[in-house]
């Protein structure tokens, strides 16, 4: 085994940690839950630079204030205060890290992917991510600024 200098190990560890830093986000109407943390990886700085042809990991830690049999995600690109639906591979929250039924007072880690397709325009916008319960009420809603780039 080749010895690795300690400064290099520390630098690599710091770089890996920077990729998983909690994001500054705007809560846009969480009613039935409270967001504890939002992570988008990789997104070391804000606005997040989203490269076309790449998929990003989303991890939201939240606490539920209600009971719900299920949950569904809705994602939008917000431009000029208009929400444009943004398809994601798995909208079912119960297939995205959340053990259903959702119980009041429990914390959950919601995990999903945000694919950025090559045909998307290079543009600055706001990503708005909602997770609704079985009564169509917001478990969480958050927004972050992004820039889609080649």
TrEMBL record:
Record key words, sorted: Disulfide bond, Secreted, Signal
Any Gene Ontology CC annotation: extracellular region
Keyword check for Ligase: no
Signal peptide: 1-20
GO molecular function, one term: cholesterol binding
Coiled-coil stretches noted in the UniProt entry, renumbered to this chain: none
Compartment(s) where it occurs, according to its Swiss-Prot or TrEMBL record: Secreted
The MD-2-related lipid-recognition domain, residue ranges: 25-146
Main localization (coarse): secreted
Annotated InterPro entries: Ig_E-set, ML_dom, ML_Npc2-like, NPC2-like
Regions crossing the membrane: none
SMART domains: ML
Source organism superkingdom: Eukaryota
One of the GO biological process terms: intracellular cholesterol transport
Family classification: Belongs to the NPC2 family.
Name by which UniProt lists this protein: NPC intracellular cholesterol transporter 2
Organism: Mohoua ochrocephala
Gene this chain is encoded by: Npc2
């Amino acid at each position: 085994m080749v010895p690795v200098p300690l400064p290099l190990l520390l630098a690599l560890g710091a770089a890996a940690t920077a990729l998983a830093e909690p994001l500054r986000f705007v809560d846009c109407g969480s009613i039935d839950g409270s967001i504890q943390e939002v992570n988008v990886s990789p997104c070391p700085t804000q606005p997040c630079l989203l490269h076309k042809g790449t998929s990003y990991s989303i991890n939201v830690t939240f606490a539920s204030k209600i009971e719900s049999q299920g949950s569904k995600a809705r994602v939008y690109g917000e431009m000029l205060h208009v929400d444009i639906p943004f398809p994601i591979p798995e909208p079912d929250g119960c297939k995205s890290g959340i053990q259903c039924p959702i119980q009041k007072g429990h914390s959950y880690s919601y995990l999903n992917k945000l694919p950025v397709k090559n045909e998307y325009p290079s543009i600055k916008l706001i990503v708005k991510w909602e997770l609704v319960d079985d009564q169509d009420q917001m478990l969480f809603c958050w927004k972050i600024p992004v820039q889609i780039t080649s």
